[in-house]
UniProtKB/TrEMBL annotation, chain A:
GO terms for cellular component: plasma membrane. InterPro entries: DUF318, UPF0718_permease. The keyword Zinc does not apply. This is Permease. The chain crosses the membrane at residues 17-34, 70-88, 108-135, 141-162, 169-186, 234-253, 265-287, 293-315, 327-351. Belongs to the UPF0718 family. It is a multi-pass membrane protein. The lineage of its organism: Bacteria, Pseudomonadati, Pseudomonadota, Alphaproteobacteria, Rhodobacterales.
UniProtKB/TrEMBL annotation, chain B:
Disulfide bonds join C11-C14. Transmembrane segments: none annotated. InterPro entries: Thioredoxin-like_fold, Thioredoxin-like_sf, THIRX-like_proc. This is Thioredoxin family protein. Residues 3-77 form the Thioredoxin-like fold domain. The active site is at C11, C14.
Length: 352, 78
């Protein structure tokens, strides 16, 4: 990869010009389709032998509108994110963060956490790679929290389904929680709670794969590959999330929603977190639910807390991290992040 | 005979990478000794942070995502 970058033989398959033409054309087509979603979904709903304003009619309309909308948005976001992230890699991020011991290492780590491509299946080698390169534990946590918490998929869908105001609030607070949680954990001196073998090891130097040359077409290919992989993997969660959202939209009475998820009951925020943590889905699956909850009058703070705990604190991820962290450290990690989420939830229920 | 190591915890893409390496070896007629490294500690020791990683005769040539087929053939014939 380092020596073979020059003299790459001509690629088989699609010629470059087709990429330069095809991507903008696909974007325009998707955009035009996106503009027709309301009439199309109304038409689909009218095919069912139910009253449009009945509970079932409302639920069907929600589903028929949201499924194509979320899938289109998801495709666009994943593609753009995939292309952008092709400029970043865990190796580069590690090199950038290794020199930063000052206070702004935390926000920088959170920022890079959003832009660096990594899948949860490699979070263990990544964690070890960071810590053994001398990146402080707190900075590493900021990175690991920000990745899922303020991922582009969640933000983009929030923007498309709920609106820019709430998407911006989510971005600001999600980013702050990642930064502050890392900072707090950094101050706690938790290195002694790593698994023993992690503390003792020194990872080998990262291979010199850094100067890999990619053409624009290579990057577009990465984007398309990401769409294939991620949309292929999460569509089932998306359908499940929208189905649940549709059920809430059609059948749950507003009065009941106000009682359970309204801002008046103090316990609604912690309850939302407790329910959110064991729920394992991804941003694409949870945002249609959030859309339906907010539409029915759920309080913003409670809903934000629910969304953040579903996305940022997941049990399977904790089980993966158990390889490198002791249970005690995992408990502290959950407690610190959950406190940030609770604070955000209470703040918005109090303000609004 | 080339010694290939594939670093990855056993995710889907790691298996796909192994299949690609074996297929390329068969196609080029290069004899390969393919070993999968799935232990997180060994993966990190090899300097791999994004999986799957691939090393040829002890030298890391790839990390993160599926390798490019043309590049893969170059590594095997180099």
């Amino acid at each position: 990869m380092t020596t073979e970058t020059h003299n790459i033989p001509p690629q088989r398959g699609v010629p470059d010009w087709l990429w330069y033409v095809g991507v903008p054309v696909a974007a325009v087509v998707l955009w035009l389709v996106y503009g027709q979603l309301i009439p199309v979904s109304e038409w689909v709903t009218s095919l069912f032998p139910v009253e449009r304003n009945s509970h079932t009619g409302q639920a069907i309309a929600f589903f028929a509108y949201d499924v194509p909308k979320v899938l289109l948005l998801l495709t666009g976001i994943v593609f753009v994110t995939g292309v952008l992230r092709s400029w970043f890699s865990p190796e580069k991020t590690r090199a950038i963060l290794a020199g930063k011991r000052q206070i702004w290492g935390y926000p920088l780590a959170a920022f890079l956490g959003v832009l660096t491509p990594f899948c949860s299946c490699s979070s263990v080698p990544l964690f070890i790679g960071f810590v053994s390169a001398g990146i402080p534990l707190g900075v590493t946590f900021s990175f690991l929290i920000a990745g899922p918490m303020v991922g582009p998929v969640g933000l983009g869908l929030l923007y498309g389904l709920v609106g820019w105001k709430i998407a911006t609030i989510y971005l600001v607070f999600g980013f702050s929680i990642a930064t502050l949680a890392g900072y707090v954990m950094g101050k706690m001196g938790l290195e002694r709670y790593l698994q023993d073998w992690v503390r003792e090891m020194n990872a080998g130097p990262v291979g010199d794969l850094l100067d890999e040359k990619m053409t624009l077409v290579d990057r577009l290919k990465v984007g398309l590959e990401q769409v294939r992989e991620i949309v292929g993997k999460v569509w089932i969660w998306v359908l499940a999330g929208i189905a649940l959202g549709a059920a809430i939209h059609g059948y749950v009475p507003e009065a009941m929603m106000l009682k359970i998820m309204g801002g008046d009951a103090w316990w609604s925020v912690p309850a939302a977190v407790v329910i959110g943590v064991p729920m394992y889905t991804n941003a694409a699956g949870v945002i249609p639910i959030v859309e339906a909850l907010l539409g029915k009058g759920a309080a913003l703070g409670t809903t934000l807390a629910f969304m953040m705990s579903v996305i940022a604190l997941s049990l399977p991820e904790m089980i993966i991290l158990k390889q490198v962290l002791t249970l005690r450290l995992i408990a502290i990690f959950i407690a610190v992040v959950a406190s940030g989420i609770l604070a955000t939830g209470f703040l918005f229920n109090f303000l609004l | 005979m080339k010694t290939i190591k594939i670093y990855g915890p056993g995710c889907k893409r790691c298996e796909a990478t192994e299949a690609m390496v074996r297929a390329a070896g068969a196609k080029l007629g290069v004899e390969l000794d393919v070993e999968k490294v799935t232990d997180a500690k060994s993966i990190a020791m090899a300097g791999v942070m994004s999986t799957p990683g691939v090393s040829v005769d002890g030298k890391l040539v790839h990390a993160g995502g599926l390798p490019d087929e043309t590049k893969l053939e170059q590594w095997l014939t180099a």
